[in-house]
User: Which sequence fits this backbone?
C-alpha cells in the first residue's frame, strides 16, 4: 500500500522490473493524494495513464500528486425492479492506472 487516506487507496503491483501504480477513489467527491513512491521501494516513475479521467503529476522531488474525481455511472438491471428493466444511478470508484512507457 502506497497511500490510504479517507476514500483514496493507492498501491503498486510489480513483476520483475515492471511497476504499475493503481489509485482508487471510492468516495462521492473528488480527492487528491500526494505520495512518494520511491520511499516504498519503487524504482520507476510511470508516465503513461490507462484511464484518463484523473490527472497526475510528478514533482522534481519524486512525489506523485494524483487528482481523482468521483465518477457517476448509470447501469441497467433486470429483476431488481421486478420483471421490467429499470435504470439506476450508482456511484462507482474511480480507478487510475499509471504504467511505464
Assistant:
Amino acid at each position: 500500500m502506497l497511500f490510504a487516506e479517507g476514500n483514496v487507496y493507492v498501491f503498486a503491483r510489480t513483476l520483475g522490473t515492471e511497476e504499475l501504480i493503481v489509485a482508487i477513489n471510492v468516495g462521492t467527491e473528488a480527492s487528491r493524494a500526494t505520495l512518494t513512491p520511491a520511499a516504498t521501494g519503487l524504482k520507476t516513475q510511470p508516465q503513461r495513464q490507462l484511464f484518463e479521467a484523473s490527472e497526475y503529476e510528478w514533482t522534481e522531488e519524486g512525489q506523485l500528486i494524483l487528482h481523482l474525481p468521483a465518477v457517476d455511472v448509470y447501469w441497467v438491471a433486470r429483476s431488481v425492479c421486478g420483471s421490467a428493466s429499470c435504470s439506476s444511478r450508482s456511484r462507482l470508484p474511480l480507478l487510475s492506472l499509471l504504467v511505464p512507457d
